[in-house]
Amino acid sequence: MSSSVSSAATVKHLIMSSLKFCANLNFMFLESPNLLERFTLAKKAGFNAVEVGFPYTHSIEELVKVKEATGLKQVLINVFVGDVTKGELGFAAIPGQEDAFQASVLKAVNYAKALDCKLIHVMSGAVAQPSEENHNIYEQNIRWATQVFEKESIVGLIEPINQRTVPNYYMSSYGRAIDLVKKINSPSMRIMLDVFHLQQLQGNLTCNIESLVSAGLVGHVQIAQVPLRGEPDTSGEIDHAYLFSLLSKINYNGWVGLEYKPTNGTVAGLKWVENMGLKL
């Protein structure tokens, strides 16, 4: 190998190694049925940070205790979404549920402050056939949440989610999400760019990621392979080595959440990190 090729490879490695990965504990380390134990497993596997979409099965005190014991950074939580067994996926776009929505946001803020977590994903709820009423109440609720987040130095996130994965999920449009974030025009409301969903909703990943990040609209990135939601090195539509290089090139400096389903055990599946010249 020539010295120039070797130097290029070294530079690429140094750039990509600047990416920061956090384990999603509602998808990874499910070898343990206990969420609190997954913090310990993530730390043993080499992670420095985690995200937990649904922390409300445990008290604030329990979560703070395990977070402090492991020394892990809590990057992200979701708002309380209600009873998922009844199909509830949040209240933001549901007329008549304003009180439930506000309570869900305030509950999330209490958890986030105790955990020193700066990102909260505001889930929209399920709506079979969205109407203008849904659009209006969603904007009203997101504006209210933004004001709360501004006071607490927290960034709220809205995430376009494809309806093949989550049927009837209201916020399933990047166009609508972009328009709303621009309209609200606050650093306390941003888009959660989950590449798994972006690929299925929009495709054209390079152009879309570059434009969203460069416009300052992205507050957090998540990844998983399409269509089976496995590790980055599993077979599918996305070239994650290229994706990581792209994120580095455009100077994305936030966390990358690993919201994938391990195919043959969480720890065994982490071989992609070293194989791609990265680190946790």
TrEMBL record:
Gene Ontology MF term list: hydroxypyruvate isomerase activity
GO BP annotations listed: glyoxylate metabolic process
Superkingdom, taxonomy of origin: Eukaryota
Protein EC: 5.3.1.22
Keyword entries, A-Z: Isomerase
InterPro entries: HyI-like, Sugar_Epim/Isomerase, Xyl_isomerase-like_sf, Xyl_isomerase-like_TIM-brl
Substrates-to-products reaction catalysed: 3-hydroxypyruvate = 2-hydroxy-3-oxopropanoate
Active site: 159 (proton donor/acceptor), 259 (proton donor/acceptor)
PANTHER family for this protein: HYDROXYPYRUVATE ISOMERASE-RELATED (PTHR43489:SF6), ISOMERASE (PTHR43489)
Job description of the protein: Catalyzes the reversible isomerization between hydroxypyruvate and 2-hydroxy-3-oxopropanoate (also termed tartronate semialdehyde).
Family in the record: Belongs to the hyi family.
Descriptive protein name: Putative hydroxypyruvate isomerase
Record organism: Megalurothrips usitatus
